[in-house]
What does this fold into?
Amino acid sequence: MHPLLAERQRLLAYITVWELLAVLLAGLLALTGNFSWTEALALALPLSFFYGFACLGAFWVCQSAPLGKTLLARLAGAQAAAALLSACLLLLAARAWGGLLDWTGLFSEKLTARAAAAGPLLLGMGIVLYLLVAALHYLLAAFEESRRAEAQALEFQILSRDAELRALRAQIHPHFLFNSLNSISALTGTNPEGARRMCVLLADFLRTSLTLGAKDRIPLSEEVGLAEGLLAIERVRFGPRLACVRQVDEDALPCLVPPLLLQPLVENAVTHGLAQLIDGGTVTIEARRRGGRLELAVENPRDPEAPRRKGTGLGLDNVRRRLAALYGNEGGLDVRDDGKIFRVEVSLPARLTAAP
It folds into this structure.
């Protein structure tokens, strides 16, 4: 569709500019001394309105000879021919309109002969105005192309982000599942009842996490429930060595968060923290809402002398990348480690409805 007709605001601006050009043309006609201001305006206003719409045809000339894709000689020839034809059309329209005004008898002196005498001025103005309109169409074409490229780049960015999020989310379950299966295998010989109980808990956890994990956002209450379900599975293996404390403000529970956000943090607290302590310890899950921010934290004790285990930090990096993809600079993850206490803090916008 024609770019100037596609949007109402553009069309109104185009008409307004042409009416201003009509006043300019009337002034030039009056300066010739052959027209009074009234006669010049009576001739120039309708002519400018007509010529403005006639020049809309420059769009198709520009389409047939686009910048950057057409030889300069061919482009210049096409636009010069179109400008000359359009200017001749303006001359014919001036004579026809002058004859109509003479027929009405509004003016004592005939306008037809004087309009013909002003032919060189009208011809020159017609060529210049057409070329200006052609330049405008080239600018609009460049703007539309830039906007399409920007929209395409944004679409690719969104698709890339979604692909990254799917990949990051897909990494969560296998890692936890492998650890759980290894734990079940270890329990089958020493604690068959515990192994069966762990299988049941694992099945329930996976069923729930797969359902919630398919969503873009879930309430924090459900996410905390998932984290507690994970700890219940681990408690079968660790027994009284593993304790859990929940410090969650009620006003934070309805806030929406990415599903499986806490799972890597809790799993990291158990695997790389409590598992290295003979007496075990307590995993603390915190959540509070401060103004427009939601602050989450998972804290656990650790053995400062224990060697760093393989895989440490992968789960945290996964969470950090998910937050960056979903929230940009509005989301963040901070790790605090004083040797005895390991604490991961997550900050993100507190939203009760999904962002558009």
